[in-house]
Design goal:
Blueprint: E1 4-7, H1 14-21, E2 26-29, H2 31-49, H3 74-85, E3 89-92, H4 95-110, H5 118-129, E4 133-134, E5 137-139, H6 148-158, E6 163-165, E7 171-173, H7 188-193, H8 197-227, H9 237-240, H10 246-259, H11 263-267, H12 278-281, H13 283-305, E8 313-314, E9 320-321, H14 329-357, H15 380-396, H16 418-449, H17 457-467, H18 480-492
Parallel strand pairs: 1-2
Antiparallel strand pairs: 3-5, 4-6, 6-7, 8-9
Helix pairs in contact: 1-4, 1-8, 3-6, 4-5, 4-8, 8-10, 8-13, 8-14, 8-16, 10-13, 13-14, 14-15, 14-16, 15-16, 16-17, 16-18
Length: 501
């Protein structure tokens, strides 16, 4: 049964966005929403009939807003706006991003602040529910005046123009989808394009991913601590309470739970080593700081999900006013912010992996956890892959939002670059997935090599999940498929079922 998300005048949740973008949930417009849209539209129609020019209704756009457009040219005005703004370039972005963008634009339309006609909102809903995905290109948004080119590509498909992917993923002309095309009326071109929906959608999706990845990072870190004969004493609750960051407390608790009952940890409880390396001992501090950054990102996302972004906007008293709420700075900053802990969590995971592979620091593991070191190289080059990805993540952590290139003949003289921040965060999330997958592979093999000592129930369960996809220690084999299998365990969250132990 296909799940349903009902759009009312109330804000949607992050879970709703993920359900529509990734889960294929159908969207239903509440009848009260449609009634409110019809009421609001009356204000736009009144302005269209008035002799005085109104931006986006009876004028041009951007730097061309000084021109008054006669009534017989206004349908052409809307059509030209969408055609000219659908100016993206580069590869098509992912279907889940486009679905999130479409849903979030529809959510703003449902607020009744944009002046859209009910039939146009229903047409966008129909396209979304039909699984038709307009082709939205990688480049074209500056994150100010909204995600103009990406949203224009969606509006173009609504008009029956441009290209789309159908429900089977086949690329075809929008005119061939069987959906009824829309002729846009006054203000509707702006209503469909003047929003921050693309960058917000990517933020919401990244937040969902990062919750899963940080849980995985706590698990792989615990496995590495165990594999390296480290101690769990540094993760004690009373020690963590001395620095009361909530994310740190949660990550430390995860690691305590993961290491509880470990025969490996118990075997060296009274050894003469005083403390572990930072990459082991400080994992809760690094992972926890990342969690708290995610919490800030959720605060920003939830505020944005309660917003109505358009320009001009229809206020409750019927006034139609120009504003700057389309500026993407609030989202752009947090997208850039999140890329920093993503890079650092990957960096500390790579350091733990390298320590397991180094015979001088691994406390008795064979070099590179190889079967016959010298003949076999084990995971030597897998760590190279980690290092390459971590290096890329450091570059992706450089903020996009500090840049601004003026556009529209200096009318739009400061832009957020929030779309670019979102795109690089998506790549960073993928990179962290790869880095954690390689730590997972390495730690699982190291735990095997500690036999007959037994790992903790949780870490042992994680090792067993890996073994369902990847064979245990032995002579070298093609490593890339093993990395891909581990990536899928991390990406899907399947490895997190180990917590059930």
């Amino acid at each position: 049964m296909v799940p349903t998300v009902r759009l009312t005048s109330e804000p949607v949740s992050r879970e709703d966005v993920v359900a529509v973008a990734r889960g294929g949930a159908h969207v239903v417009l509440d009848e009260a929403v449609l009634k409110n849209l019809a009421t609001t539209r009356q204000h736009i129609d009144a302005l269209a009939d008035a002799p005085d020019p109104a931006y986006g209704i009876s004028t041009g756009f951007g730097a061309l807003a000084v021109r008054h457009i006669p009534e017989d040219r206004r349908i052409a005005l809307q059509r030209s706006l969408i055609r000219s703004h659908a100016a993206g370039a580069g590869p098509a972005v992912e279907a889940e991003v486009v679905r999130a963008l479409m849903f979030l634009r529809l959510r703003t339309l449902a607020t009744g602040r944009t002046g859209i006609r009910p039939d146009t909102a229903k047409a966008l809903t129909e396209m979304l529910n039909a699984g038709v995905i307009p082709v939205v290109h990688e480049f074209g948004s500056l994150g100010c005046s909204g995600d103009l080119a990406p949203l224009a590509a969606v509006a173009l498909a609504l008009m029956g123009e441009g290209e789309v992917f159908d429900v089977d993923g086949q690329r075809k002309p929008a005119a061939d989808t069987g959906l009824t095309s829309v002729t846009l009326a006054e203000k509707e071109g702006l209503a469909l394009t003047n929003g921050t929906d693309g960058m917000l959608g990517m933020l919401v999706l990244a937040l969902a991913d990062l919750h899963r990845l940080l849980d995985a990072a706590d698990l792989t870190a615990a496995m590495s601590v165990e594999a390296l004969l480290g101690t769990d004493r540094a993760f004690a609750a009373d020690l963590q309470a001395l620095r009361p960051h909530p994310g740190q407390a949660l990550s430390a608790r995860h690691m305590r739970v993961a290491l509880a009952g470990s025969g490996i940890v118990a075997s060296h409880r009274d050894c003469d080593r005083v403390q572990d390396a930072y990459s082991l001992r400080c994992a809760p501090q690094v992972h926890g700081a990342a969690r708290d950054t995610v919490s800030h990102g959720e605060l920003v996302a939830d505020r944005e999900l309660a917003a109505a972004i358009d320009n001009p906007v229809v206020l409750a008293d019927g006034r139609v006013e120009s504003n700057g709420n389309f500026h993407g700075a609030p989202i752009a900053y947090v997208l850039d912010f999140l890329a920093i802990p993503v890079a650092d969590v990957a960096s500390i995971a790579e350091r733990r992996t390298d320590r397991m592979l180094d015979v001088a620091r691994s406390n008795g593991l064979p070099a590179f956890v190889a079967d016959d070191p010298g003949v076999d190289s084990g995971y030597m080059i897998a760590q190279y892959t980690q290092a390459a990805v971590v290096s890329e993540l450091k570059r992706l952590a450089v903020p996009a939002s500090v840049d601004s290139i003026p556009s529209s003949a200096m009318q739009e003289d400061h832009v957020s670059m929030g779309w670019s921040a979102a795109r690089k965060l998506r790549r960073a999330v993928d990179g962290l997935t790869t880095v954690l997958a390689i730590e997972l592979l390495t730690a699982a093999r190291a735990l095997d090599l500690r036999a007959p000592l037994r790992p903790a129930p949780v870490t042992g369960a994680a090792r067993d999940i890996v073994r369902e996809r990847v064979a245990g220690p032995g002579p070298d084999r093609h490593v890339a498929p093993d990395i891909a299998a581990a990536e899928e365990l991390v990406r899907s969250g399947a490895i997190l079922t180990a917590w059930e132990a």
